[in-house]
Amino acid sequence: MKLFDRILQAWRAHMARPFVVDGARVLDIGCHQGEFVKSLASRIGSSVGFDPAVKCESTPVHRFIPEMFQQPSQFEDESFDVIVMLATLEHIPNKE
Question: What is the mean pLDDT of the chain?
C-alpha cells in the first residue's frame, strides 16, 4: 500500500471511530487486512471482517474471512451493532 493510501486509510478510520461505541459488534465489509477492527480490538465486541485479500484469522475478539461479503448474509439479523465499508464501493465492479 502506498503512503497516500495509508494516509487515506487512517483518515477514514479516524472519521468512523466515533460511531463505534465500546462493546459494539462490528461488521467490516472490505476490511483489507483488518486494520480498522484490529485498531479497535481492545474496546469492541465480537467482530467480523470480509475481504478477498484478507488473511484468514480468528481471535476471541475478531474473525477475518477471505472472501467477498455475500447476500443473503450468513449472519442472523441484529448480529452487529455497526457495519462499516471504508473505501469499498469503488472496488466493486458490478454495483447493481
Answer: 89
CA separation for the pair 29, 34 (Å, rounded): 10
Amino acid at 67: E
CB-based contacts of 19, cutoff 8 Å, min separation 6: 82
pLDDT, tens digit, 9 for 90 and up, residues 1-26: 789 888 988 999 999 999 999 999 99
89 pLDDT higher than 70 = no
Residues sharing a CB contact under 8 Å with residue 61, sequence separation 6 or more, in sequence order: 41, 44, 45, 46, 47
Q: Which residues lie below 8 Å from residue 28, measured CB to CB, with a gap of 6+?
A: 34, 36, 37, 47, 48, 49, 50, 83, 84, 85, 86
